[in-house]
Amino acid sequence: MAEVMLPMKMEMPNAPSKFTSPDLLHVLAVDDSHVDRKFIERLLKVSSCKVTVVDSATRALQYLGLDVNEKSVGVKDLKVNLIMTDYSMPGMTGYELLKKIKESSAFRDVPVVVMSSENILPRIDRCLEEGAEDFLLKPVKLSDVRRIRDSVMKVEDVSFTKGVNKRELETENVYSLDPSVSTQLKRTKI
Prior knowledge:
This protein is 43% helix and 14% strand. With 190 residues, the protein is an alpha/beta fold. Strand 3 (82-86), helix 3 (94-103) and strand 4 form a beta-alpha-beta unit. Helix 2 packs parallel to helix 3 (94-103). It starts with 24 loop residues before the first strand and ends with a helix.
């Protein structure tokens, strides 16, 4: 005879978190392909993320309030926790968008994930060296989205509760190691 499992109420910790409802992880998804935009939007929503989608790097900059040439549609105190962008787009590439975001004082610490259907190693290396959090090959998988979401939430949650930012966390982790291990880590290209 089969055993029937009844749903159980889960207890949520009382500790403060940035991502308790309604403050979901907010992801800005940038892709010129309508199909790819809808696909990544669906993956992110299934992963319990708030999603804003735009069709170009220029529109992303406008949304973030970083486009000096056009009237920005960015909202004051806009909170975006993650930016996922296609690499190959007309006008401005995902790499150029990444550079502009990393040059911005307001969004420098926001993780940027670059996506592409082309597995070109120099392109991947260049994006990672410029500060991309990750580089995903299309089609993006649900497991990739959840891994990145969990990573961002963990860093942001620790940052929120301890009052430190992501860069300080990375520095603490590297320098808390034995000095010889720390030196080896700095020399190793991952």
